[in-house]
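Title: Comparing notes on inverse folding

I've been comparing how different people in this forum approach sequence design from structure. To keep things fair, I'm posting one structure and asking everyone to reply with a full sequence. Here's the target:
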């Protein structure tokens, strides 16, 4: 897997750069001084608007429950943009920590963690999958195995400018379950993503797992965005 090696090397290089150029005692958002081990300051934390309740994504009479840490605005949006487009892994760590708190506060139980995959071209361009990065931190912290069981097989058209039903149609058949010797039969699986918009992406990933015998699926994202 040549692409995998390139992806990993890029990831390692980004990590090295972050160690060299880290400004440890500064908030990654507002650059004010921090006196604990956190990546964002108390003032920025106060500006984070947390979502408390779960919500359902429903399509073709299949209902999947989902949670998001916050709305896609303010602090959370800044963190996601930094993780996604600036390779800022400290921002990713902060998002993942919020996700872990949400899991613990809601007492969400699951057997495996997985994530929304990227297609090979997009992955090569970015060098890492931000959702996989978040999922890995959660997996390490909660000691629940991460499984790599979904593949994005088709390039999706940009969702911008598409209406609700076009977005759902755009996502259909983009994802494929890949057996990886892990038996998902009746297993409860958490799917991690950075942002949820219509829910179509997460739904079709969940659907692939359900079709292949999984138990309950729960979706967890850093943010939710209204269409
Ligand atoms: Zn700050």
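Reply #1:
Here's my take.
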């Amino acid at each position: 897997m040549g692409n995998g090696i390139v992806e990993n090397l890029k990831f390692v290089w980004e990590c090295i750069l972050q160690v060299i150029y880290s400004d440890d005692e500064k908030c990654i958002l507002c650059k004010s001084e921090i006196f604990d081990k956190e990546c964002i300051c108390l003032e920025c934390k106060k500006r984070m608007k947390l979502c408390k309740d779960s919500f359902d994504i429903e399509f073709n009479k299949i209902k999947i429950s989902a949670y998001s840490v916050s709305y896609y605005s303010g602090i959370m949006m800044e963190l996601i943009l930094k993780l996604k487009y600036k390779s800022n892994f400290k921002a990713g760590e902060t998002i993942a920590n919020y996700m872990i708190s949400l899991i613990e506060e809601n007492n969400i139980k699951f057997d495996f963690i997985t994530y929304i995959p990227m297609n090979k071209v997009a992955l090569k361009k970015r060098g890492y999958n931000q959702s996989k990065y978040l999922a890995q931190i959660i997996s390490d912290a909660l000691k629940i195995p991460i499984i790599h069981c979904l593949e994005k097989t088709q390039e999706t058209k940009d969702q911008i400018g598409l209406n609700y039903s076009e977005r759902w149609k755009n996502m259909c058949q983009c994802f494929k379950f890949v057996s990886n010797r892990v038996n998902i039969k009746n297993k409860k699986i958490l799917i991690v993503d950075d942002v949820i918009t219509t829910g179509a992406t997460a739904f079709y990933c969940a659907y692939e797992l359900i079709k292949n015998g999984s138990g309950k699926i729960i979706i967890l994202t850093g943010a939710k965005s209204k269409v």
